[in-house]
């Protein structure tokens, strides 16, 4: 078998397992075009390739993986913080864990056919490392790190949100992060059974971007307000505000 490798050299009967998909093809599936394609090529080098490659000084994607892991975590944390203003720290921690875990990243990498683009040694390929979840998830992190170096914060932020958009949207159907009204109701019933009352006291802003201000009252002197893009959100934020105040007073 004759395979042409970088620097114009050729190797006879090499046991290097070549990728079935080129970096150019992978860029098309990823939806991001690199200005410095060498960054992408490095992100697609599995460490097994460095042990068998004919090219000198081949660097694996492990350093980019380290960087991409940090970028991914920061982007996801920021997205959850802004997307779910009623979410508690505990809920966001669990949600972030679900979004960045190996199984999630592995599924995304498979949908992008990332394994087919990896430079990999024959030994690793023989044990089907291209389809291993850990290999795929780490390689996807390396790609994210490469995008961050190539295009900066905005490029990485856009890519991560695009890759995780469906999964983040699914989180919106989880009502547990915005259950402040139920928790406040239970607290009211467990103490002095004070009556809870909600009222929208103001609304402002243009019609297409209205902001509502809600007031919640529990008993005679326990009042809190909250603002949101819907009446429900404003009430939930008001409820959370009163909950926080009540909990602080008992600490």
Descriptive report:
The protein has helices at residues 23-30, 37-43, 47-52, 62-83, 89-100, 102-111, 122-126, 133-171, 180-190, 231-250, and strands at residues 2-4, 10-12, 16-17, 120-121, 196-204, 211-218, 222-228. The chain is of the alpha+beta class. The strands form three sheets. A three-stranded antiparallel beta sheet has the order 5-6-7, with helices on one face. The longest helix has 39 residues, at 133-171. The model is unreliable at 1-14 (pLDDT under 50).
Please report the number of helical segments: 10
Strand content: 5-15%
Largest sheet: 3 strands, antiparallel
- The unreliable regions are 1-14
Q: Please tell me how large the radius of gyration is.
A: 25 Å
Number of strands: 7
The end-to-end distance, rounded to whole angstroms, is 73 Å
Oligomer: single chain
Q: Strands across the major sheet, in which order?
A: 5-6-7
Global shape: elongated
Give the structural class: alpha+beta
H and E string: EEEHHHHHHEHHHEEEH
User: Considering DSSP H and I runs of 4 or more, what fraction of the residues is helical?
Assistant: 55-70%
The overall pLDDT, averaged over residues, is: 84
Relevant terms:
single chain, 251 residues, alpha+beta, two-stranded antiparallel sheet, 10 helices, 7 strands, 56% helix, 14% strand, elongated
């Amino acid at each position: 078998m004759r395979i042409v490798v970088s620097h114009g050299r050729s190797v006879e009967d090499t046991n290097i397992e070549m990728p079935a998909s080129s970096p150019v093809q992978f860029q098309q599936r990823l939806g991001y075009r690199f200005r410095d394609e060498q960054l992408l090529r490095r992100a697609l080098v599995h460490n097994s390739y460095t042990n068998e490659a004919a090219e000198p000084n081949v660097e694996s994607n492990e350093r980019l993986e380290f960087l991409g892991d940090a970028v991914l975590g920061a982007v996801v944390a920021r997205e959850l913080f802004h997307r779910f203003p009623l979410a508690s720290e505990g809920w966001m921690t669990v949600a972030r864990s679900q979004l960045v875990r190996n199984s999630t990243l592995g599924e995304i990498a498979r949908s992008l056919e990332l394994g087919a683009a990896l430079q990999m040694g024959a030994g690793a390929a023989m044990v089907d490392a291209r389809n291993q979840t850990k290999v795929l998830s780490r390689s996807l992190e390396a790609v994210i790190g490469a995008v961050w170096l190539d295009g900066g914060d905005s490029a990485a932020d856009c890519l991560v949100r695009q890759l995780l958009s469906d999964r983040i949207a699914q989180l919106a159907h989880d009502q547990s992060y915005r259950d402040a009204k139920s928790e406040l109701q239970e607290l009211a019933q467990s103490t002095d059974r004070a009556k809870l009352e909600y009222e929208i006291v103001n609304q402002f802003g243009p019609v297409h971007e209205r902001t509502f201000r809600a007031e919640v009252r529990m008993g005679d002197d326990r009042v809190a307000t909250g603002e949101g893009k819907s009446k429900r959100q404003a009430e939930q934020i008001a409820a959370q505000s009163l909950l926080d105040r009540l909990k602080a007073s008992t600490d």
